[in-house]
Q: What sequence folds into this?
């Protein structure tokens, strides 16, 4: 029996050649995926190496640059999303604009975006106020995600941003975050030096 025919005589779809990943195949895969896909997962599915996946992702970035669908990256994962300039039209189609963020939420989100991964203690030291409710609100809206646990005493939760953050602000990667003013950058990253010093002191006491 012909390999291209099923047992009942109907034709079957040809399997993609192993060891191949074209730009068209990658776009189709991301289109049908119901979640972001990791580069390693794409490589395994296509039977290709990581360099091939990276190259096809780069090609697709260029091809979609002026279209209504964009390639969005967050860490090792990629997915397709609508172009930011189509946001208002799409919002009208779904019947409501995205909920507005309060000033505390925007401030907290900015800290997380630029300092990630960071703990709640870091956020609260920079803001100078309790941020538990604000963080929970941002987690509920999926603008902030839990990335794991810190190695610091008590192993506090580490927070960062995910795909919903990128989509909400029309970014394709965190590299597109606008540069910070010098004063704000100094305030954000001076905290990193303080944390490192405190961590060293705790480690010395433990030893």
A:
């Amino acid at each position: 029996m012909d390999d291209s025919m099923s047992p009942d005589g109907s034709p079957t779809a040809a399997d993609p050649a192993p060891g191949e990943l074209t730009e068209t195949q990658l776009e189709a895969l991301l289109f049908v995926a119901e979640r972001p896909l990791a580069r390693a997962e794409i490589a395994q599915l296509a039977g290709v190496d990581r360099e091939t996946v990276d190259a096809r992702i780069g090609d697709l970035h260029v091809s979609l640059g002026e279209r209504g669908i964009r390639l969005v990256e967050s860490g090792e994962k990629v997915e397709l999303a609508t172009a930011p300039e189509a946001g208002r039209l799409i919002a009208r189609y779904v019947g409501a604009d995205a909920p507005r963020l309060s000033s505390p939420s925007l401030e907290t989100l900015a800290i997380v975006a630029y300092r990630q991964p960071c703990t709640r203690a870091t956020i609260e030291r920079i803001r100078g106020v309790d941020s538990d409710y604000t963080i929970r609100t941002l987690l509920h809206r999926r603008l902030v995600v839990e990335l794991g646990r810190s190695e610091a005493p008590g192993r506090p939760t580490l927070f960062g941003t995910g795909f919903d953050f990128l989509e909400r602000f029309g970014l394709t990667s965190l590299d597109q975050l606008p540069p910070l003013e010098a004063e704000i950058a100094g305030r954000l990253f001076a905290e990193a030096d303080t944390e490192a010093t405190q961590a060293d002191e705790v480690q010395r006491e433990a030893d």
Remarks:
- Residues 1-6, 9-14, 196-207 have pLDDT under 50 and may be disordered.
- The beta strands are 37-38, 69-74, 77-82, 145-149, 157-160.
- The first strand starts at residue 37 and ends at 38.
- The chain has two domains: 1-96, 98-206.
